Amino acid sequence: MILNVNLATEPLERHRRFRVFSALLGVVAAAGCLALAWHVYVLWMAETAFRTESASVSKEMEELTAERDKLDRFFSEPENAKLDERASFINAIIDAKSFNWTNMFMDLEKILPIGVHVISIEPKQVNGQASVKLTIGAASDEAKGKFLHALEQSNVFSHLQLINVRPPSRQTAGDQVELELTVIYSRA
């Protein structure tokens, strides 16, 4: 039979609990350090990729800027500038010829109320759109209001600007008021 007899003046202390918690804390700290190291590595790789891509984009932008400058110099030469002016003039003529008068008159006819008639129409091309200056005669203020409301609600006439409201300049039968206005006509 074996007896455990402690002959020391102080009893034996066991530090097992301290060692277990210390080892567990060490493992958690090591895992945290590894996670933090991995995060730093991923950020470093992302930053490296970003810097590489940024340098590539900057180089491409410099090349495109140089090409644009070369083209600007080419088109600013006198003989090429004349060609540009001629092309703009021809494009303006083509735009004016391609204006569909029939559709504009049909759309205008749909919104004209009773008691309103067109006195004059002056279209012109502005930035690829047809700007139309209209002079309208109206038999009453009610007819004038209906016409303006119909223009505002129209899908093909926009940017209504009332220039002038005056008594009729000509002796037109039944007109009480004459309107000058501009609208943008665009049929999609």
Describe the structure.
This protein has two domains: 14-76; 100-185, Gyrase A, domain 2. The protein contains four helices and four strands. A four-stranded antiparallel sheet has the order 1-2-4-3. The protein has helices spanning 16-76, 78-97, 101-111, 141-153; strands at 116-126, 129-138, 157-166, 177-185. Helices cover 56% and strands 21% of the residues. The mean pLDDT is 84. It is of the alpha+beta class.
Based on helices, strands and strand pairing, what is the structural class?
alpha+beta
Categorize the overall geometry: elongated
Helix count, per DSSP? 4
**Helix-strand pattern:** HHHEEHEE
Give the arrangement of secondary structure elements.
Elements: H1 16-76, H2 78-97, H3 101-111, E1 116-126, E2 129-138, H4 141-153, E3 157-166, E4 177-185
Antiparallel strand pairs: 1-2, 2-4, 3-4
Give a brief rundown of this model.
Helices cover 56% and strands 21% of the residues.
Keywords:
188 residues; alpha+beta; Gyrase A, domain 2; 2 domains; four-stranded antiparallel beta sheet; 56% helix
